[in-house]
Amino acid sequence: MTTQLFGILFPGSPAVNALLATLYISGPPNFLLALCPPNIDPSSLSVMVAFAVGGLLGDTLFHLLPEIFLGEDEPDHARFVLVEPNRNLVLGLAIMVGFMTFVAMDKGLRIATGGVGHEHSHGGHDHAHDHGVAKATGADVAGGEAKSRKKKKNNDKGTAVAETKEINPSVKLGGYLNLIADFTHNITDGLAMSASFYASPTIGATTTVAVFFHEIPHEVGDFALLVQSGFSKRAAMASQFVTAIGALIGTLIGIAVQEFGGSSGEEGMPRNGGLWGTSLTWGDLLLPFTAGTFLYVGTVAVIPELLETGPNKMQELRKTLVQFSAVAVGAGIMLYISWHE
């Protein structure tokens, strides 16, 4: 059933399928924002975030890493694998570069906000793990509204005073920085789409599923952040559509690298004919870079949010069980697809 569904959704070449996948992960989540109330509490998305964590880690561990180091299994062909230690080292280096790229983005955002980034967001890969932002900015906005109401009440002339929100400047800056970070993140999503579909149709399809379910809480969380940073609902939705262009740009870049940067692929390459005396090309490094970014998102960027607890122990225990179940379901779907591909 999954094979037939993937065949319907992705009927073309790797380049065409990557572009289709980019539309799937960028379109529906953004249109869902029209149904979201401006005062949505991002913490209510914790179950969806946990499900996305399971999907991302499952895709990375069950699909991307085996594909990176061993290649795609083809029952109709026998393939001789030559152990090439330096090749594996370069692939591992590409994974680390992907991981550290998001560490740098995270650190840069926190520095740009004067330390507010640590309290208000989980970094450059701002997904629905912007919950800290939403809570903190919500408090700041509430404080601003309280001040304006107080001014209105104490107006000794008795005239009506227009109520205006006093948005904390650092919060407003955080909203704009989040848009920049979101745009950059979407570029890496696009790179992931192109790299995975050029690896194999199954890898591409499962990566699309993992990213799609991660995009839903991501977009809603960013939407709540922008609204609480002073954006109108319409402006916040328009901003999210603009950042979605980053995914298309990333996909086109990835396709260009794969088409013109070369890939060892089926024909293979002389053992010392590629990068740094290995059989690798630049196109072969996109998939491990993607795996590194997924590892960051699924661990450093999101896990801290799932570790947050409240004072009610029984309530937190039930919440934890639901979250762990959601993680298991997300990973289980990826394991099932991988097992039966």
What does this structure look like?
Helix 7 runs parallel beside helix 9 and helix 8 (201-228) runs antiparallel to helix 9. The protein has helices spanning 2-9, 14-31, 46-70, 85-112, 116-120, 131-153, 169-199, 201-228, 233-260, 286-298, 303-307, 313-340. With 341 residues, it is mainly alpha-helical. Helices cover 70% and strands 0% of the residues. It contains 12 helices and no strands. One of its GO terms (molecular function) is zinc ion transmembrane transporter activity. Keywords: Membrane, Transmembrane, Transmembrane helix. Residues 117-133 have a biased composition (Basic and acidic residues).
Instruction: Report, as a whole number of angstroms, the end-to-end distance.
Output: 11 Å
Largest sheet features = none
Strand content: under 5%
Oligomer: single chain
Structural class: mainly alpha
Helicity, as a percent range: over 70%
Subcellular location: Membrane
Organism: Stachybotrys elegans
Transmembrane segments: 6-25, 45-65, 85-105, 241-261, 285-308, 320-339
GO molecular function, one term: zinc ion transmembrane transporter activity
What is shown here, in short?
The protein has twelve helices and no strands.
Question: What keyword list fits this structure?
Answer:
341 residues, mainly alpha
